[in-house]
């Protein structure tokens, strides 16, 4: 791995573990060395389950496998797990640790990256990071991000899609399809697991969408558990059915949150320009109406 990358990772105020495809440790940053009392030289090349026995559990093995095979991120919070790595450092308190497990590709090599965050210092680090970023980030880019992108998922927001629709409608001989996606059962997830876990589910769904969106396609978060997919130059029945199937396929794999496998579905409506409407409002209304027809049909078991 590039020496610059390693130097940056070693400056981070959280733990970073890199595993190879055989689940052997290839990087153990300085935060972990200080916190655990185990140097990188001691643990490098060892199986992660030998160094961190807690990862012997099947649920973590499943998360590791899905991250490597499908690029699926997994998150486990301190609210449920308290901590993952034991402290052997007298001057460091036992933190409440979140972990994020994700796939990483470096120089044609696949790695599994495990990030450990100390929740107690999380907001302080964010404040310090914001102060440093304010002096280096261009104001106009920050403003554009705020206006046109959803802060939770990072997807384009309602204003972005409406502006794009208005632009496409004015183009000569332009055709496109607009899909209205509503996640079924999302309220039940919030009620059973809490709003933090509900937010994580939305973020994970957004990540899956980002991985499959191609050129001339835009997926956006409208509000709550409602999303839009805008597809240019495709309006045939066959194309529409393909995209409906594509969206449903994104939801076939369960979402893993707090060691729980959560499965949800979607109700999907669509509208095509120009046959279903000639304004953004008309197209949204048609797609929305179709979505609710499908949602009611699913509730009745059709």
UniProtKB/TrEMBL annotation:
The lineage of its organism: Bacteria, Bacillati, Bacillota, Bacilli, Bacillales. One of its GO terms (biological process) is regulation of DNA-templated transcription. This is Diguanylate cyclase. SUPFAM superfamilies: Nucleotide cyclase, PYP-like sensor domain (PAS domain). Gene3D superfamilies: 3.30.70.270, PAS domain (3.30.450.20). Residues 1-71 form the PAS domain. It comes from Lysinibacillus macroides. InterPro entries: DGC-Regulatory_Protein (IPR052163), GGDEF_dom (IPR000160), Nucleotide_cyclase (IPR029787), PAS (IPR000014), PAS-like_dom_sf (IPR035965), PAS_fold (IPR013767), Rev_trsase/Diguanyl_cyclase (IPR043128). Pfam families: GGDEF, PAS. Residues 174-302 form the GGDEF domain.
């Amino acid at each position: 791995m590039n020496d610059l990358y390693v130097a940056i990772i070693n400056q981070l105020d959280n733990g970073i573990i890199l595993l190879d495809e055989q689940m052997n440790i290839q990087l153990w940053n300085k935060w972990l060395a200080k916190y655990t009392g185990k140097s990188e030289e001691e643990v490098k090349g060892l199986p992660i389950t030998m160094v961190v026995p807690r990862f012997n559990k099947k649920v973590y093995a499943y998360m590791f496998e899905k991250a490597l095979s499908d690029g699926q991120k997994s998150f486990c919070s301190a609210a449920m797990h308290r901590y993952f790595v034991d402290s052997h450092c007298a001057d460091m308190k036992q933190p409440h640790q979140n972990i994020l497990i994700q796939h990483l590709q470096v120089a044609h090599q696949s790695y599994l990256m495990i990030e450990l965050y100390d929740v107690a210092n999380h907001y302080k680090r964010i404040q310090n990071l914001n102060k440093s970023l304010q002096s280096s980030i261009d104001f106009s880019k920050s403003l554009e991000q705020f206006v046109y992108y959803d802060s939770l998922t990072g997807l384009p927001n309602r204003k972005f899609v409406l502006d794009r629709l208005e632009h496409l409608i004015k183009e000569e001989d332009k055709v496109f399809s607009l899909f209205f996606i509503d996640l079924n059962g999302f309220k039940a997830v919030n009620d059973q697991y809490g709003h933090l876990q509900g937010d994580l589910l939305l973020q994970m769904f957004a990540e899956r969408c980002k991985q499959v969106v191609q050129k001339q396609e835009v997926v956006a978060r409208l509000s709550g558990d409602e999303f839009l997919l805008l597809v240019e130059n495709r309006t045939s029945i066959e194309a529409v059915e393909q995209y409906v199937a594509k969206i449903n396929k994104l939801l076939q794999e369960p979402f893993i949150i707090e060691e729980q496998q959560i499965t949800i579905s979607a109700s999907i409506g669509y509208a095509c320009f120009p046959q279903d409407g000639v304004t953004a409002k008309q197209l949204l209304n048609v797609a929305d109406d179709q979505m609710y027809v499908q949602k009611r049909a699913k509730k009745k078991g059709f």
